[in-house]
Amino acid sequence: MIEIQGDRWTGKSVLLSRILDEAAGRGWRAVSGYAESRTLPNVAFGVFVDALDDLLAGCDPEQLDARTDGQTAALATVFPSVPAAEPRVFPTDPLERYRVFRAVRALLGSLGADGGLLLGLDNVHWADEASLALLSYLLRHPPQGDTVIALTHRPRQVDLGLRSVLNLAVDTGLARRLGPPELSDEAARALLPGDLSRPRCASMLTGSGRNPGLLKAFAATRSLLDSGGHVLPLDVLTESLRDFRGLSDLGRLVAEAASVVGEPCGLDVLQAVAQVTDAELSRAIDELIRQDLLRADAGAARLRFSNPLLRAAAYQSAGPGWLLGAHARAAQALSGPGDRSPVLLAGHLDRAFTTVDDADRSRTLLAAARARLWADPARAADWARRALDSGHRARLVLGAAQVLDGRLGGALRVLHPLRDDSAPDPGVAAEAVRWRALALRLLGRHPEADAELAAAPAVETSDADHGVTGLDAARHGTLLSDRLVGQLDARIGAPDGMLVTELLGALETLSGAARGRAHALIAAAAARSGAAEHAELHSVVAARLLDGLSDTAVVPRLDGVFWLAVAESALGREEAARGHHERGLRLAESRSLRALVPGFAAAVGALDLSRGDAAGAARHAACAQYAATGTDSDRLRQEAGALCAALAALDDPAPDEAVDDVPDAAPPLTPDAGAAPRPLGSLSNRETEIAVLVSGGRTNQQIARALAISHKTVETHLGRIFKKLRVSSRAEVAAVVGRAHRPGRAAGAA
Question: Where is the segment annotated Disordered (predicted)?
Answer without folding.
Answer: 655-682
